[in-house]
Amino acid sequence: MAKIKFSSEDHIYMQVAEGIEKMISDDVLRLGDKLPSVRVLSDEYGISMGTAFQAYYHLEGKGLIESRPKSGYYVRFNQRRFPALPKTVGAFPIASDVSIKDMIATVYKDITAVDVINFAIGVPAVELLPAAKINKSVLHALRHSKDHCIGYEHFQGNIELRKQIARLAFNWGGNITPDEVVITTGCMEALVICLRAITKPGDMVVVEKPAYFGIYQAMESLGLKAVEISCDPETGPDLDNLEKILQQFPVKACLLVPNFSNPIGSCMPDENKRRLVEIITKYNTPLIEDDIYGELYFGKNRPRTCKYYDKKGLVMHCSSFSKSLAPGYRVGWIIPGKFLDTVKQIKMMHTLSSPTLTQAAMAHFLSIGRYEYHLKNLRKALHTQCLKYMQGIMQYFPTDTKMSRPQGGFVLWVELNPTLNAYKLCTEALKHHISIAPGQIFSASSHYSNYVRISYGKPWNEDVEYGLMMLGRLIKKMG
Amino acid sequence: MAKIKFSSEDHIYMQVAEGIEKMISDDVLRLGDKLPSVRVLSDEYGISMGTAFQAYYHLEGKGLIESRPKSGYYVRFNQRRFPALPKTVGAFPIASDVSIKDMIATVYKDITAVDVINFAIGVPAVELLPAAKINKSVLHALRHSKDHCIGYEHFQGNIELRKQIARLAFNWGGNITPDEVVITTGCMEALVICLRAITKPGDMVVVEKPAYFGIYQAMESLGLKAVEISCDPETGPDLDNLEKILQQFPVKACLLVPNFSNPIGSCMPDENKRRLVEIITKYNTPLIEDDIYGELYFGKNRPRTCKYYDKKGLVMHCSSFSKSLAPGYRVGWIIPGKFLDTVKQIKMMHTLSSPTLTQAAMAHFLSIGRYEYHLKNLRKALHTQCLKYMQGIMQYFPTDTKMSRPQGGFVLWVELNPTLNAYKLCTEALKHHISIAPGQIFSASSHYSNYVRISYGKPWNEDVEYGLMMLGRLIKKMG
Fold first, then answer.
1. Are B302 and B319 in contact (CB under 8 A)?
2. Which end of chain B is less congested by CB atoms within 10 angstroms, N or C?
3. How far apart are CA B342 and CA A216, in angstroms?
């Protein structure tokens, strides 16, 4: 094996593991190849046996290698060999008697049910979240606030929390003051407030296709028209397409998820973000940037945001802790740029202020540096789960299955045989206590009828494997 | 003094105190009259000296009698002798360069500021709320929920809390199941969701005049037109007026506060509620009933709600704990009648679900019976504060001041000399660190420019007295 130079930034075992991972994906090490023993590895790299073991243990956790009893470690998996990516736009919709609203109601009838293997809900599993430490922050907030968090909070949000959010923006190069932040009751409220700030019923808004169904629903309830732009499964929105749309139509806003878009998992290269901001600036069209998955990257660095490239205050940056720390706390925020005053007014009209206690608890949790530490672990866990789930789907689903390759977030976008009706699959699966999100709910027009979204928020275990196996069986039966 | 027959329902000292209070208000006992000594009172009523003392102590707390050292107790105040009630509709508006939005922004710039004597904010003071006991319920929720309240709650709301809300409805004769309740992030979200469920931009909605400015703002932001109906300062909406409006205009909804309307404090007699429901049923116009002050009555019994008389599911009943238990928890609810499904859908689109922890804490607090106990104390405290503030205003404000006589809630509606501009008074008062709500913000058209709303949520103390004295001085200077 080639020697590598260790940098001081990462753990040495990680650097060794990454080197081996690269060799696997470059086909230097092939499926079935035997790896050097722990002793040999330790000699070759000049590392301790313990570190060498840790590197293999890490790769085994990701499902890339396996240990065979009394034999050693073998290459098990090469993520370059994943199935093809899903198509950009799905096949023609299969006529359906069920409205999208009813489909959503069926799938999400009871998101708190405990007897269901839930691949439909887009949140990390509770066991990945630092519950005990958040509880301590709640206690701290109860004890140290001037009125036990019983009184109203300022409608713009807890000042300590706004300071922490401003600090968090450093991660993507943001230079934000607490006065520029407005706290909301989750990211959904953030998006609804932004839409209300810059649109009127009947206005056109550009969205990705496919997109999170909550966005379509919110727009419908506000009387807005969705103009869908095509998206590349890896790099996101087609910017030439966008520019044409902005030229031709009186679009009032764009609502995009540049980092790890839901459901396709694409991440816009930073260069594309720069160009996107140039385009919306040229046409003076505000951009609502939903960055709720931005911190959940699998690569070395946090991807930038569009807000970073924004000079005119046209980008309304939205995010929350719902996907990364505490879904049930419903703490989100907006950095609304030049629309700050309007956003503050609408927030006040909407819910007066967000709850005091949950804001104070999040502020404390961030202020003692626990969020950064937690995110590091969460990213690792999600990356591992992503690879495991992909392997599971390859193993149990039919061979013509296609799949996204997310570089962050926690959902897989899976394309099945065109004859398959995903909603039917979903209702069949529910009978077996397995829930998935059918592709139909991710567009305004029931496209994607042969797609499903599978969340890998839950750590790999026997239930999960059984769930995927069962799904594979149902698909084969229906195909 | 006349003998009275004690019932077993109330404390004996309260029954004695009420008897004396009635004699004062009936002018049997007049201002300055000396009251019997504690010993004589105890002999006359056949009660202990302690109970007799408690009765006087209670009346002294309400400001109705006073003890003079080494002399005994004297009648100090007769609440029948209050100034006249404010007029139903204010004088013509004084032209103003300041928009209502800007006025609201100025008054409520920082509702969390601690160095201001705040008569503008409509909540009970934190010292009247059971903070320590609520904290215990938070701890209970953290310890006993399946996932430490970190995961999403069901979008319709915590089931235990919905059970408690259904139980609470017994107080006004309601027969509600938990399935009929939808939890919201405070009452403001409840009202906004109801409006969105049954109206479209451009629709007409009947509201009271004057009404809480948040209602006007919410309607404006939803593109709705307010049709204002006149209200009696004691009995609320003029129902003949309402029926004429429903005959003439295509009104899509009524949004009313039948119990202790904000700011005028009127309470619709139950008979009027019955007729109101008959009228809206006849015209098939849904009624959004904001009952947020319903539990804060000063009389013997809780006033009924319109929902009680509703047979067709046309009444959407809204309330919250923000005015009675924990403003900062932002826990409200809707009992939406036949619009249940629509309301559930909009709630899901709006904020997905409300925070898990605050709901679970409220559910526990109610389940152990603490809410009823707390309400009893709160009602007594608010009634006492109401009388004290009224006396203070009579003492310090000019003699031409008129004032509402609320039978519940915690705001006084005060009419000043017609030449006075309440918003100017308000900005002057802010310079002295006193905040009040100017009348202009309680109508769509800057009427009520010589009115102010004064909240008596804060217990009477030297600061409060200084604040009212200072206000009186400013009014006299400006007059």
1. no
2. C
3. 16
Output the domain CATH number for residue A152. Answer: 3.40.640.10
Shortest CA distance from B196: residue in chain A: A221
Note whether B146 and B225 are same-domain residues.
yes
For B42, phi then psi, to 5°, come to -65, -40
Residues 129-148 of B with CB under 8 A from A: 129, 131-132, 134-135, 138-139, 142, 146-148
Greater confidence, A66 or A383? A383
Lowest mean pLDDT among A168-172, A328-332, B61-65, B440-444: B61-65
Structure tokens at B244: 């004429």
- Contact (CB<8Å) A350/B196: no
- Among the partner-chain residues A327, A345, A357, the one whose CB lies closest to the CB of B152 is A327
Residue type at position B342? T
> If you search the block for the tokens 């056109």, which residue do you land on?
A204
Does the beta carbon of B329 lie under 8 angstroms from any beta carbon of chain A? yes
Of A110, A201, A355, the CB nearest to B355: A355
To probe the interface with A, which of B352, B362, B455 has the most A CB atoms within 10 Å?
Answer: B352
Q: Do the domain assignments include residue B2?
A: no
- Name the amino acid, one letter, at B265: G
Q: Are residues A250 and A264 in the same domain?
A: yes
Report CA-CA distances (Å) from A173 to A168, A170, A176, A304, A309.
Answer: 9, 5, 9, 7, 10
Do residues A164 and A113 both lie within one domain?
no
Does the pLDDT of residue B91 top 70, yes or no?
Answer: no
Residue type, A415: E
* pLDDT in the model for residue B5: 64
pLDDT band at A317 (very low <50, low <70, confident <90, very high): very high
Mean pLDDT value across residues A150-154: 90
Q: Region B278-282: what's the mean pLDDT?
A: 97
Q: Does A398 touch chain B (CB under 8 A)?
A: no
The pLDDT assigned to A5 comes to: 63
Higher pLDDT, B7 or B67: B67
How many domains are there within chain A? 3
In this complex, is the C-beta atom of B31 within 8 Å of any C-beta atom belonging to chain A?
no
**Residue keyed to tokens 């009765």:** B55
Bridge partners of B176, per DSSP, are none
Residues B69 and B105 placed together within one structural domain of the fold: no
Domain range for residue B300? 131-371
pLDDT(B109) > 80? no
Residue A358 has pLDDT above 60, yes or no: yes
Q: Which residues of A touch B212 (CB under 8 A)?
A: none
CB contact under 8 A, B201 and A188: no
Of B135, B221, B352, the CB nearest to A148: B135
Above pLDDT 90, what percent of chain B? 66
Residues A72 and A122 in one domain: no
* Cβ-defined contact of B328 to A353 (cutoff 8 Å): yes
- Closest-approach residue (CA) in chain B for A325: B150
What percent of the residues of chain A are helix, what percent strand, and what percent coil, each to the nearest 5? 45, 15, 40
- pLDDT tens figures, B129-181: 999 999 999 999 999 987 899 998 988 999 999 999 999 999 999 999 999 99
Chain-centroid distance of CA B191 in Å reads 16
pLDDT at A210 over 60: yes
pLDDT at B300: 87
Q: Give the closest of A126, A153, A155 to B151, CB-based.
A: A126
